[in-house]
Design goal:
Order of helices and strands: HHHEHEHEHEHHEHHEHHEEHHEEEHEEE
Shape: elongated
Distance between the termini: 40 Å
Oligomer: single chain
Strand content: 15-25%
Number of helices: 15
Structural class: alpha+beta
Helix content: 25-40%
Largest sheet: 8 strands, antiparallel
Amino acid sequence: MADISQSSTEQTCASEFPFLQDPETVTFIHKSKVMIIIQGLPGSGKSHLAREISKVYSDHAICCADNFRPSDIKYPFPKDILTKSHKCCQDTAEHAAKDGVNVIVVDNSNIRLWEMQPYLNLANEYNYTEIVVEPQTRWKWNPVELAARSTQGVPKDVIQEKLKKKDYVYPFFYGWFVNNTDSLSLRQMAQGMYEECLQEPQFVDEFVQYAVPGAPQKKDGSVDLKQYFSAKTFDTGPDSLHCTAFYSDHGEIDGSKQYATKPAVQHSLGRAYKLEIIGLLITPRSFGFRLKLNEKELLLWNNDDDGNIPTPPSSKSNDELQKQMEQMTFDPKGQVQCPGWHPTKFSPTCGPGSRAHLSVGVGVGFKAVQTGIDLVQLVQDELNADAKGKDDFLTIKIKKAIARCYGNGNWLVYFEESMAVDTLFTGYY
């Protein structure tokens, strides 16, 4: 008979999750709002993992439909009992979200997207960052052992059928997420620097020439530059900032499986990262923070828009350029190096990851993705200017930064010193 004791093996597997054992991740989650959705078959160790999470985060709520079923009713459960127990579970999660509980744990099977959708909707409504995890127990695919361990007495044949129906639940996109408090601070900082730029007539004169049609106006008919940008159209809502690492569209995008199963991605889901902010971009279409990814972060990056990667200008053939791209390496500090290029004050990034950003707002008629499109073009403008030795740009000095115009109302703001922002790498569902 198989040994079905749950203490040692499950405890070892649970300790592998960064939200349980990585100090930086635990610290980040303590000051954020996070919903952890546990996905797995009966007997796979979901409830054990939920208990381990509750030991780390005192301000928590565990939402489990099993807890709302009468103890004297055994599997298979009547439909009305199932419906009522899941409704009670969802209500518990909603009450916890309304109260702003630090960590909400959803301990149900969640083997298909529609099963976890009510909780994902709550997370999005109440600005919770979502982590979808699965117990890493060695028997999680073994119907015999799962049936033996199931506390609800789910038989082997039923588990086998559930196993056939189990989906790999891909997120809408993967990325690094800033918590609500820091997002607000960063938005205020960005707005403050933007308004400093608005105090400079040269900035205003250049920018308004290229203002998008339908831009907000003042009573006198002039463009209302203070109200120019908005985040209301963002898929993730207007509150929390994020940097997209890979857009998967729930698995519909080619390469989704390869990305999801990469060891670096598997290792990093639910893990905290400090991203480096090096400046701002301000264009008539978009407004956001510019990031500089390090070597570990670039292992998670796959968002370069079909290979549209800024590189130094060259007369080489396409084949030669492809070989050049493959030769990109990292310097000792972990920054990407393009052949023939070295970082300077006005050309701090090159190659893969140059698109990395936090969208703050967009102009009328545009979506958040425009920020990345604009940044790619501006980085290429930097590289072209650097190669030509050109430096006769319209430039203004603001507090702790320099703003430079690359034409057509497109500006990059270079910080005197970069800053770090705490984030959590996970998916948005």
